[in-house]
Write a structure and sequence with these properties.
Distance between the termini: 54 Å
Number of strands: 8
Helix content: under 10%
CATH architecture: Sandwich
CATH topology: Immunoglobulin-like
Order of helices and strands: EEEEEEEE
Number of domains: 1
Low-confidence stretches: none
Number of helices: 0
Strand order of the largest sheet: 4-1-6-7
CATH class: Mainly Beta
Shape: elongated
Mean pLDDT: 84
Radius of gyration: 22 Å
Largest sheet: 4 strands, antiparallel
Length: 123
């Protein structure tokens, strides 16, 4: 194939490209867990990989991510929006687990209290 000024060359691969795999043994599993008897909550959680995420959801709520970083700041904030009529004893629990071990936790037994669990995690 020859090309001249103004020609467009399109290379079409004839086989799949190689997949680069990360070393799975160096990954740490981060779990954000929220439980309680609130009917609806507003969550804000952050990490350096995804930034700040805000969600309005029902409980329980769980989300996980894997990271190969050796140190990261993790934050989880929960605000109750609505409790069911029969919730005489409100309860909220926000937990951050790293590799299955509890890293930070916050709880509340109030109808209006925002709870926050956060900290710098290092391997």
């Amino acid at each position: 194939m020859t090309s001249a000024c103004g020609d467009t060359i399109v290379n079409i691969p004839n086989q799949p490209s190689n997949i680069t795999q990360t070393n799975q043994t160096n990954l740490s599993r981060i779990d954000f867990r929220v439980n309680g008897n609130a009917a609806q909550v507003k969550l804000r959680f952050s990490n350096p990989i995804d930034g700040l995420t805000q969600v309005v959801t029902t409980l329980p709520y769980f989300i996980s991510l894997d990271t190969d970083r050796s140190a990261i700041f993790l934050s989880l904030e929960v605000t109750p929006i609505l409790f069911t009529t029969g919730a005489n004893y409100p309860f909220l629990s926000a937990q951050i687990f790293v590799n299955g071990t509890l890293f930070r936790e916050a709880t509340s037994s109030d109808y209006n209290t925002t709870i926050t669990a956060s900290g710098n995690w290092r391997k």
